[in-house]
Amino acid sequence: MRYLKQFGIILGISFLGEILYHLIPLPIPASIYGIVLMFLALMTKTVVISDIQETSRFLLDIMPILFLPAAVGLLDSWPALRPVLLPVAVITVISTVAVMASAGLVTQGVIRRSKKGEEEDHG
Amino acid sequence: MAEFASTSLFFGMALSLAAYGVGVFLRSRWKFALFNPLLVAIVLVVAFLVGFHIDYATYMEGARYISYLLTPATVCLAVPLYQQFSLLKKNAKAVLLGIAAGVMASLTVILAMSVLFHLDHTMYVTLLPKSITTAIGIGVSGELGGIQSLTVVVIIITGVLGNIFAELICKVFRITDPIAQGVGIGTSTHAVGTARAMEMGEIQGAMSGLSIVVAGLMTVVLANLFAGFY
User: Fold this and answer.
1) Chain pair A-B, CB pairs under 8 angstroms
2) Whether residues B184 and B104 fall in one domain
3) Domain final position from B25, B46, B68
4) Is residue B111, in this structure, part of any structural domain at all?
5) Which pLDDT belongs to residue B5?
6) Which pLDDT score, from 0 to 100, does residue A120 have?
7) Cα–Cα 20 to 30 A to B184, which of A22, B199, B206, B228?
8) With 90 as the cut, is the pLDDT of residue B198 above it?
């Protein structure tokens, strides 16, 4: 029964996410509302980790394979990709480097600045 | 073969699990980054379907039940976010500003390069969520009218790039602070990059894991805005 309860909680929150998706006219996927609802439930202790522990670990564990059917859809979208294969590859590589560098450098800059500030306060 | 497959309910699912199993086996045997289990599974399933002249719709007959669990699994991303929340609070300013910078860089670079290469709107919104976790990215792509299958493949390849080049990129840009390394890797290359961050160190791994969901949520909001630009 334990797994049934855990799965029930997770499905219940997924369902609430779907309801919000239909009520709120924004292009935000139902699963995002679900993440926010689950996070709020955990923060307010409405749901505690032990209520969903094993089932959430299982679902997170198998997550990659859940994307497989969608990715195989590449078979049908290949005609759309083929003419732009090179630009898409270039964009993928360059944006990946740009994002890692900017996120890392900004984080590092803010950390160093606040450390320097602290030293000056103490100095 | 094609005829039998079209009448079988379990063909698509069995093929998917078997292909993924091969991917997991290859990864455990050789620590080669290109042997990402999902990437291997995609190649194997596509090759099998093409080889036996089975169309995508036939495969989906059984395989769609796998996708059914995607929303509940995505909802569970709240669990690691909750568990790492104290880490976020401790470095809130640096981490949030860093992730925001990364998300803006991602959207801006993709916008600029899509204009440069004259990509159409569909291809542009297909690429917009490419740096974030597949679970959130696939939803964003769908909502914006992108090609979801392509978004998934580009997201995975982005992750594999991060897994291979994370240390090199950090070195070239002189990102030496472990928190900054983690934020950079998680924001740009989600869970697949995070696997590499975990090998670099405990702080890198935790910060990277935390950045995945935060970057994903920020992208949901900002991608909608950016979709209107081109």
Assistant:
1) 307
2) yes
3) B68
4) yes
5) 67
6) 67
7) B228
8) no
Cα(B191)–Cα(B132) distance, integer angstroms: 9
- The reply to whether residue A73 touches residue B148, judged by beta carbons under 8 angstroms, is yes
> CA A65, CA B69: separation in Å to the nearest integer?
10
Q: Which two tokens stand for residue A40?
A: 């709020």
Q: Which residues of B touch A37 (CB under 8 A)?
A: 75, 78
pLDDT digits (tens, 9 = 90+) for B117-126: 999 999 999 9
Residues 50-79 of B with CB under 8 A from A: 50, 55-56, 59-60, 63-64, 66-67, 69-79
Alpha carbons B182 and B189: distance in angstroms, whole number: 11
Looking at the predicted structure, is the pLDDT value of residue A1 above 80? no
C-beta separation of B194 from B205 below 8 A: yes
ipTM of model: 0.88
The two three-digit tokens of residue B185, written as one number? 């890797």
Q: Is the dihedral of CA B105, B108, B112, B118 positive or negative?
A: positive
Q: What is the pLDDT of residue B80?
A: 86
Residue B18 belongs to domain spanning: 2-68
Q: Where does a domain end: B68, B90, B105?
A: B68
DSSP B132: S
DSSP B77: T
The closest CB to that of A87, out of B72, B119, B149, belongs to B119
DSSP A47: S
Q: Which of B143, B169, B211 sits opposite A27 (nearest CB)?
A: B143
What is the 8-class DSSP label of residue B52? T
DSSP 8-class letter at B32: -
CA distance A93 to chain B (A): 7
Q: Please report, for residues A18, A38, B133, the alpha-carbon distance to residue A44 in angstroms, rounded to integers and kept in the order given.
A: 21, 10, 26
